[in-house]
Amino acid sequence: MREALDLAASQQETESVDPGTVIAPLPRISVQAFCETQAVADAVEASILDRRMARAHVKVHMGGAPAALAAYRSAPTPNLLMLESGSDAGQMLAHLDQLAELCDAATRVIVAGPINDVGFYRELTRRGVSDYLLTPIGPLDFIRTASALYTGEGVDVVGRTIAVIGTKGGVGASTIAHNLAWAISSAQKVNTVIVDLDLGFGTAALDFDQDPPQGVADAVFAPDRIDANLVDRLLAKCSDNLSLLAAPAMLDRVYDLQETAFDAVIDVLRTSTPCIVLDMPHLWTSWARRVAVSADEVIIVAEPDLASFRNVKNMFVALKQARPNDRPPKLIVNKVGMVKRPELPIGDFSKVLEIEPSATIPFDAALFGSALNNGRMIMEIQANGKVPEIFDQLATATLGRQPIVKNKSSILAPLFKKLRRA
Hints:
By secondary structure, this protein is an alpha/beta fold. The protein is 40% helix and 16% strand.
């Protein structure tokens, strides 16, 4: 149990949750909230639309603790119960004592209210209350608190999922995804798994010069067998900090997948891997939409042309509606400056979307072609340069970290090196 003295500080943090905070999705549980104020009821109602609440079944009632007491005299209690109380501490504790006689042993309780008192919090914990929210609250406050109850004992961090998708075929989304994963794993030293979701035509194995006998399809088509051991056996090692869950890239079957096809695989990876990069094909099927909407971070890759301009606008609108409590997707404009090709100004993207591109990557046929044909990443082919620096900065921004300041070598460094050897 957390220290009661930390209550005030923790609640101040809860009131303004960063949309970029990694919050684990809730499992398939029943949730009921009994609210006294419309503001708290609206916050819980808004949380229902969040991607992390997709599996939970949530109902919101008015009337607070008295209404809950009346309801559960003739009905079983849910997996998670939230009670809002604007009354004094004594009355709220009395209501909890009465409710304890009606609650199932497995029911977890969250209390929300305006009382900011350590003694009151201690009394709540003595009565088995799982957590306390200091009102006013927002949707993310409720989601984060509820998620923490089911993440697991002692588990504070879950894997961050990053979905990379192109606005059309051939924009280089897979190349961006692979090099981003490499930058995160090598420059940022974060254990990373890249998952190739293009089962029929995926190129991740080729780009990393791998030929794994198994991959993501072996997990997708055997959902009853998916666990941490199975997924670990399917991973191909690309470097010390980077592993690959490859696509079969074969056409011996059709890949008409269900909406939840990749849920189990991603859930298993989140429990053991700090960063999961999802290399998505250019599709908008039920499962592709679900994966994109469920990701912690979405990166859209476009080219400076009219088709990309139209598609990126549509994708931003669709994802913003489906992810109301998340930051907008990151935009990468790729293949900028291709010789003799008319291009739309980058400013047009920014003006319509009201967001600046996170990166603009220049067209460099020799550099990218050499990397692709040799099964290497850009940072392996060219350690220093503008393009490797872009991927390094993108990895830093995606993880929410501060840029690493690199020490510039002195012109006298070779002389000092010789003197040290002497």
